[in-house]
Amino acid sequence: MAKDMISFSAVEKPGFRQLMQQLQPKYQVPSRTYFKQKIIPAIYNDVEATVKGILGTADKLSFTTDMWTSINMEPYMSITVHFIDQDWKLKSINLGTIPFNDDHTGVNMAEEIKVTLQKWNLNLDDVISGTTDNASNNSTMFTALQKQQLSCFGHNLDLAVNEGLKIDTVSRAVRLVRVAVDTFTRSWKKSRDLNIKQKELNFPEHKLIHDVATRWGSTANMIHRFLEQQQPVNSVLFTDRKHWHVMPDTAIIRCLEQTDNVLFPLSKLTDTFSGDQYVTVSALVPVLEYLSGTLLKIKEGDDSSLEINLKKTILKSIQKRYESEKIKLFLSICTYLDPWFKSSYVSDEMVVKVKDHLLSILDEEIQVQEIIDVEEKMNEESDKVGLSNSNSNVCGSHTSILLQIEKKKKNSEDRID
User: Fold this and answer.
1) Which domain of life does this protein belong to (predicted)?
2) Is-contact 307 295, C-beta < 8 A?
3) pLDDT at residue 377 greater than cutoff 90
4) If you write DSSP's letter for every residue of 340-364 in order, what string do you get?
5) Where does residue 7 rank: exposed (0-12), middle (13-18), buried (19+ CB within 10 A)?
């Protein structure tokens, strides 16, 4: 039940009962109430204990979260944490998909994050950052949590490309392609005729793709597939006078080809950045440079006016999402610390800022550790001399330890220099 997410009632259905009877005639299958009240809760408790043990190894972590609504119009909030375990392996654990019937305000969302972290024995102070879409309530949530927000690159790319798809000539061409694709997807006869033509013309026997409004990648795939199957599609439409108006003219085809030249190379980026088994944030600065310097670079003399307009629109939109100096520093730190990239994609000016920031963090860590060491040493000496005369001895030792701290700090600064 837990593994396959089937209902409790499955154990009372005739087919399952008959199967168990054949496997073990003497076995009495418990009722669904027994599974609901005993078996599944026991499994949950075991899994919960295991997960808490794994989470206990997390030193620092980040989280991703999203608000969504089920097909039954029930609102939920999903929360997943990401961290590096003691074996330096990236772990991602979903902490819950939680019914969210309160107003979807940033403050309420922040409170749910806190409650969920506390439930799993996680400390909010150990959270470095979180990744979400660009909804305004998410910004409010991060303000309430006092944590760094990093907007989802896939979502930003989706918004940027959709800005490009709003260009009048592109929008008209895409609408016509949708109508043409609808003609085939809604008629089994047309689909059959297309397959026949594909065989006759020795074309790949691929079905046409209909896009989804909320996924720009599906629009890019729809255009790409339509251009691939342009000849068999037109051959089928030409035999039916009622659908001649659906056949794209030369201007539309040229527009689609130019749009495809810009969009199709971008579609691979979405797949690359949707992984959860490898770190992607450190690659964001290199990818932004790759976008501006390669994929969306204007090729003077080669690019048409439409391609230039598309590239400028998409690049401007996506760069706007990362123009904050705070975000630039955060991303540059991630890239600089990645052995794959180091300072290759970070400007000299930013490298100076990154080093200064990292040194300040290191200094804070050293001071915290030294305070801990001081407290431990004071406690040890207090235990040695006894409570009666501990005050005078501790004061003397305290002065000595402070001198040691200054010496350690100076040595640390010398090593850094």
Assistant:
1) Eukaryota
2) no
3) no
4) TTTTTTS-HHHHHHHHHHHHHHHHH
5) exposed
Per-residue burial over 100-121, b = 16 or more CB atoms within 10 Å of its CB, e = otherwise: beeeeebebbbebbeebbeebe
The domain made up of 56-151 has a fold known as Nucleotidyltransferase; domain 5 (3.30.420)
pLDDT per residue over 58-89, tens digit each?
999 999 999 999 988 999 999 999 999 888 88
List all residues 6 or more positions away from 164 whose beta carbon is below 8 Å from its beta carbon.
170, 262, 263, 310, 313, 314, 317
Task: Provide the b/e sequence for 357-388 (b: ≥16 CB within 10 Å).
Answer: eeeeeeeeeeeeebeeebeebbeebeeeeeee
Contacts of 214 (CB under 8 A, 6+ apart): 158
Helix (H, G, I), strand (E, B) or coil at 95: strand
Place of tokens 């330096």: 88
Give bridge partners of residue 212 from the DSSP assignment.
215
* ∠ Cα 197 242 170 (to 5°): 80
**Amino acid of residue 369:** Q
Q: What is the pLDDT of residues 219-237, one digit of tens each?
A: 999 999 999 999 999 999 9
Closest CA to 298 of 281, 311, 287, 289: 311
Alpha-helix runs per DSSP H in 273-324:
284-290, 305-320
Position 402 scores a pLDDT of 43
Q: What is the C-alpha to C-alpha distance for residues 341 and 332, in angstroms, rounded to an integer?
A: 10
For residue 73, is it left (φ>0), alpha (ψ between -120 and 50) or beta? left
pLDDT interval class at 214 (50, 70, 90): confident
Percent of the chain with pLDDT over 70: 90
CA quadruple 183, 188, 191, 196: dihedral positive or negative? negative
Residues 278 and 227 sit within 8 Å (Cβ to Cβ):
no
Residue 214 has which token pair?
């909320």
Measured CA to CA, the distance from residue 317 to residue 216 in angstroms comes to 15
Q: What is the pLDDT of residue 29?
A: 87
φ/ψ (deg, to 5) at 148? -75, 125
Q: Please tell me which of 264-273, 292-301, 372-381, 389-398 the model is most confident about, judged by mean pLDDT.
A: 292-301
